[in-house]
DNA sequence: GTCGGCCTTGGAGTGCACTCGAAGTCAAGC
DNA sequence: GCTTGACTTCGAGTGCACTCCAAGGCCGAC
């Protein structure tokens, strides 16, 4: 059942030691290209592990981080800022206040942008209403 | 009072005939560069008028369109698609159904994306809550 | 032992949406 | 009549976030 994509893995005993980049990609909805890019660019908490043959091994912890990273990205945080957040987390305990500030700033931005989109969407809805009534008139 | 930025305008009699690109930029929140770019790229309903000296003259109709255009852009519609919408509007009456469909498709996408952002934001809020309680503990 | 398939790296390429620069024109003020 | 400053066009440049490619390595299957 797990014959392909098992290349560099030992799978000696333990209950799943990690996964290939392809699996990680599938589970996170990103592409292997993007996962490598994120690592190269310093967005990962730490370098992903490797097998003896050099293949990446993603752990659940890695995926958890990638998920957080995806949430930040999906809400509009730039790569640059995600990198800053990752750097803080990498430093370890002691800078929680900074991390909190960063996330709160982001949160405020997201709320503002959400409000803006809502406003624009309402105006677009008015336009849609106009076209809809035009269609209704043409339908007679 | 209106001495500068009046360059190409005649201002013979009438109650404001149009405005310069600088004024249009200020009123729409875009830059003159961007306004020119939009026109070049075919996003305007029709080419903006010119003075005898070749300067652009923006009318209220132009600004109304730019506003709509800004709303579409701000809600994530691509330049390419805005261009398609502009092309439909330019064609004149008869394709209201297509325009409606385009806007409704866009609306659906925006709603989906809004929901996604909300979901991600909630997860980020949880994280913020964790840091906040860490801070509270450290505060003692 | 060689083939297929997934992996590696470094670097280059892509698409989008602006954004800027250079060189020139024009009307108004001094 | 010369300077000033906002405008013009065309084309090139920028920043972001991927996205892809070439060349090569490793492993299991045939």
From TrEMBL, chains A, B:
This protein's UniProt keywords: DNA-binding
Superkingdom of the source species: Bacteria
GO molecular function terms noted in the UniProt entry: DNA binding; DNA-binding transcription factor activity
InterPro entries the record matches: DNA-bd_dom_put_sf (IPR009061), MerR-type_HTH_dom (IPR000551), MerR_fam (IPR047057)
Domain HTH merR-type, residue spans: 18-88
PANTHER family: HTH-TYPE TRANSCRIPTIONAL REGULATOR ADHR, REDOX-CYCLING DRUG-SENSING TRANSCRIPTIONAL ACTIVATOR SOXR
Name of the protein described by the UniProt record: MerR family transcriptional regulator
Species of provenance: Terrabacter aerolatus
């Amino acid at each position: 059942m797990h014959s392909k994509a098992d290349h560099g893995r030992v799978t000696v005993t333990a209950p799943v030691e990690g996964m290939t980049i392809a699996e990680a990609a599938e589970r996170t909805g990103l592409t292997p290209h993007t996962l490598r890019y994120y690592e190269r660019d310093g967005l990962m908490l730490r370098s992903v592990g490797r097998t003896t043959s050099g293949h990446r091994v993603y752990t659940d912890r890695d995926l958890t981080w990638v998920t957080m990273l995806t949430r930040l990205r999906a809400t509009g945080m730039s790569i640059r800022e995600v990198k800053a957040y990752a750097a803080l987390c990498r430093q370890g305990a002691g800078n929680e206040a900074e991390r909190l500030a960063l996330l709160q700033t982001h949160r405020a931005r997201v709320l503002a942008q959400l409000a803006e989109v809502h406003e624009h969407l309402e105006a677009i809805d008015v336009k849609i209403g106009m076209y809809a009534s035009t269609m209704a008139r043409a339908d007679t």
